Amino acid sequence: MKRDIKHSKKRIDLEEIINPLNGKPYSENYFKLQEKINALPVKQYEKEVIDELKKNRVLILEGATGSGKTTQIPKFCLNPEICGGKGVCCTQPRRVAAISVAQRVAEEMDVQLGEEVGYCVRFDDCRSDKTKLTYMTDGMLLRELMGDPKIQKYGVILLDEAHERTVSTDILFGVLKSLLEEREDLKIVVMSATLEATKFKEYFDNAPNMSVEGRTYPVTINYSRYPENDYFEAAVKVVSKIDNEPEGDVLIFMTGEEEIEEMVARINSMKTKSHMIALPLYSALPQQEQQRVFEKVNGRKVIVSTNIAETSVTIDGIVYVIDTGYVKQKVYLPSTRVETLQVTAISQAAAQQRAGRAGRTRPGQCYRLYTEKGFNESLPKQTVPEMLRTSLASVILHMKKIGIKDILHFDYLDAPSPQVMVRALEQLYYLNALDDKTNLTEIGSKISEIPVDPQLAVTLIASIDYNVVDEISTIVSLLNVPSIFYRPKEQEEKSKADAAKAYFNDHESDHVTLLNTYNAWIENGKDSKWSWNNYVNQRALKQAESIKNQLLGILYRMGVKQQQKPIEDVRKRKELIRKALCKGFFMQSAHQVKGGYQIVCDNRIVLLHPSSCVGKREWILYNEYVMTKREYVRTASSIQPEWLFEASPKYFAQLDKFKESETTRALKRVKRAMN
Q: Where in this chain does the record put each Helicase ATP-binding domain (predicted)?
């Protein structure tokens, strides 16, 4: 009897239900998500993108926010004809975006996060040997280049959000452009949300470019009639107005963590008809809390965010946007050799991006807390590239480690000013990271592997000789997280917080105060209730603990043995901590004069920040320079002037070249006494 055998249909069914990435059956959720994915504008361009990448090694892709480019284009690149069986890497300017997008793509591809799809950000590497697609911060890709200058494991590198023009992305432009000559199998995709595509196209020798439309609805722009004196209170008024408007979630752009948390508390304390639930969004927020902004709530969601919600993160359901018109940016002051965070006006391009967030799902409203005249006449057209307004010490260190010898003639997208470049080279020379021919020294090579500011990395290396590795690694970690001290707004609570902090205060060193607080937290079992009662930030302390463990791991891999027996003499130990700090921060030292402190390197007169617990000391070093209505230095420690000469004989050998001042004369007297 003839057998009726039908194999083909069964085989097709299996192909449809088995995930080729891990060989497991697709979940029900996978099929649910496909409908949403197929509705993304970028899906219409899949064949076109793949065809372009088969023919070309560089592609410039301009895609409106919400088009799906960040989640889908890297998946297109996993096509073996494009990536050649190698990995795909997509860079992001911010850790929040790298993590949240990796989570989303892992869900879409129905794989475990950290397996076939992973992410890598500073102090958090979530990848495995199976990882085929990695989302990482641009700074972390620069670090990978330090270990493997040809990054052989990647067949395709995508530079996403290139319009943000971070220092790391700008350096990657130059490094990858030269790498194209060495690696014929490498392909590069530059993705941007604004009209900088022409500049990128010209930089890559007229590479082909594509434009992907986004799904957008009209957005009504509402300007303030008069300039706002207090944008915080103005934003609260608009929130109250929106409470009476039709349904739709709200996105408020603020400048920083403290301001965001204050706004969240304010809105959540209001009685609202639409049951408003305010949620914060900023880069230092833990991953699980960031995730909350994507989840549905019983009421109207009000997301209060930094500029990361401009383009890096797409949140569905936003109908109302409140744009304060400001952003917090790092600005480098070559004269003082320090970076300061300044609140500054956004660009017109950023304002357009913010407004666009309101028109993703239906017609929206954008409330600009500035006048139309202010928009047209006061806001710059584009955001200034970070390369032109930040310290280059870290990035030059990375460039040297990668093997770029001629820093001055590197193929920059926008070359930084010679003054900023020279200051960075000088700083690295005096930190002993570069020799007099600007070659990387042994110390320079070591500190380039430590993912913190060069001055902190030098301090960490110095702590080995002073036998205070544990103490300094704790302090360095605490300086790399948000403030561990909570400052309430209410006067009564503020007094209680000050009283709690006073228990940990060391009147010779804010750095030791940080250390005391951390140690007390450890001694109390890292208890969140203890943190609450003592007005300290439990989240920041946990972050610091994680960073400390990683820093100690890096030192261990460098061959640093476990710390010798701790120095029992507490006074001596605290002195050695300050000496180690001096090794990294001798250029950020100041001398007490009439009216405040005079900075050693440029004679500027500043005040010690009110938050400091260091009493009036003749000589101090400091971590931060803060410019508000007055100029302050913050996080300070008292020092002996002799320590400055021990920390950098090279720098202080040239006292005759220092500007004449009371401080310079005092240093000369110290030098004579030492001789």
A: 50-213
* Cβ neighbours of residue 370 closer than 8 Å, sequence gap 6 or more: 223, 224, 227, 228, 325, 378
Mean per-residue pLDDT for 668-674?
91
Task: Please compute the mean of the pLDDT values over residues 529-541 and round it to a whole number.
Answer: 93
3-class DSSP assignment, residue 413: coil
What 3 state SS string does 453-502 have?
CHHHHHHHHHHHHHCCHHHHHHHHHHCCCCCCECCCCCHHHHHHHHHHHH
Phi/psi zone of residue 376: left (φ > 0), alpha (ψ -120 to 50 degrees), beta? alpha
pLDDT tens digits, residue range 429-474? 999 999 999 999 999 999 999 999 999 999 999 999 999 999 999 9
* Rounded Cα gap, residues 94 and 160, in angstroms: 10
- Render 10-47 in DSSP notation, one character per residue: HHHHHHHHB-TTTSPBPPHHHHHHHHHHHTSGGGGGHH
Average confidence (pLDDT) over 522-542: 94
- The three-state secondary structure class of 613 is coil
- Report helix, strand or coil for 437: coil
Tens-place pLDDT, residues 161-171: 998 889 999 99
pTM: 0.84
pLDDT of residue 195: 62
Closest CA to 653 of 597, 599, 586: 586
Report the distance separating Cα 13 and Cα 42, nearest Å.
27
User: Which spans in 27-137 are helix H?
Assistant: 28-38, 46-55, 69-76, 80-83, 95-108
Can you tell me the distance from the alpha carbon of 359 to that of 194, in angstroms, rounded to the nearest whole number? 16
Quick one: pLDDT at residue 15? 52
Tell me which CATH homologous superfamily contains domain 19-212. P-loop containing nucleotide triphosphate hydrolases (3.40.50.300)
Closest CA to 399 of 99, 172, 635, 67: 172
Domain 219-384 has CATH 3.40.50.300: yes
* Integer Cα distance of 249 and 317 in angstroms: 6
DSSP string, 188-241: EEEEESSTTHHHHHHHTTS--EEEE------EEEEE-SS--S-HHHHHHHHHHH
- State pLDDT tens for residues 256-289: 888 999 999 999 999 999 999 999 998 877 777 8
CA distance 420 to 661: 24
pLDDT at residue 11 in the model:
42
What residue type is 520 in one-letter code?
A
Amino acid at 257: E
**3-class DSSP string for 317-365:** CEEEEEECCEEEEEEEECCCCEEEEEEEECCHHHHHHHHHHHHCCCCEE
160 backbone φψ class: left, alpha, beta (φ>0; ψ -120 to 50):
beta
What is the pLDDT confidence band of residue 486, given thresholds at 50, 70 and 90?
confident
Q: Quick one: tokens of 480?
A: 């790399």
Task: Output DSSP code: residue 88.
Answer: E
Angle at 575 between CA 570 and CA 578, to 5 degrees: 130
